[in-house]
Design a protein that fits this description.
With 170 residues, this protein is mainly α. Helices cover 63% and strands 3% of the residues. The N and C termini lie far apart (48 Å).
């Protein structure tokens, strides 16, 4: 198995995990919080897609699907197009309101772009330094694993949150 196959498998799993957490959820479920500062399902799904898109597109040398394919306009969120959710305040989390089909559509598009990119990688590409501002410098392989790790962490949070919300629905 080549490294790109492992990466493709990882990126492919994100979409499935988030889909199970978000599919069929209504707006009340997508925006309900376990406490006043907790992340919502809508924010988690949006953030997973934005982080993936925002980090993989520059590596691929492409425009983010967020802007290139009109997702920014469809979501119409009150954030700059560069926002990916990192460091969002509780109030900003609450502003991510979108139906499940929109969230999942954007995630599918971002995932497809990531998969297209990793499929063209050779194993040696993963050793290329992509960020020298860290010590040690960050290689492409480390950056892609970081994107996957963040996505899996948030997908797990979304799955847990959906389970709690379904069991405690008003």
């Amino acid at each position: 198995m080549r490294a790109r196959d492992v990466l493709a498998d990882g990126f492919g799993r994100i979409d499935d995990l988030v889909r199970r957490a978000v599919e069929g959820a209504d707006e009340a479920t997508l925006t309900r919080r376990l406490d006043p500062d907790a992340n919502t399902l809508a924010w988690l799904a949006w953030h997973i897609a934005r982080e993936q898109d925002g980090q993989v597109a520059p590596l691929a040398g492409t425009e983010q699907v967020w802007t290139a394919r009109g997702w920014s306009q469809r979501f119409a969120l009150p954030f700059d197009d560069a926002a990916v959710g990192y460091g969002h305040t509780s109030d900003e989390v609450a502003q991510v309101v979108a139906p499940a089909d929109l969230l999942l559509g954007y995630l599918a598009d971002a995932t497809a772009a990531s998969l297209a990119y990793v499929q063209r990688l050779a194993d040696d590409d993963l050793d290329v330094v992509v960020d020298e501002s860290w010590d040690p410098p960050v290689t492409l392989g480390v950056r892609l694993v970081s994107v996957l790790g963040d996505a899996f962490e948030h997908a797990g949070q979304a799955a847990y949150l959906r389970g709690v919300l379904d069991r405690t629905a008003p």
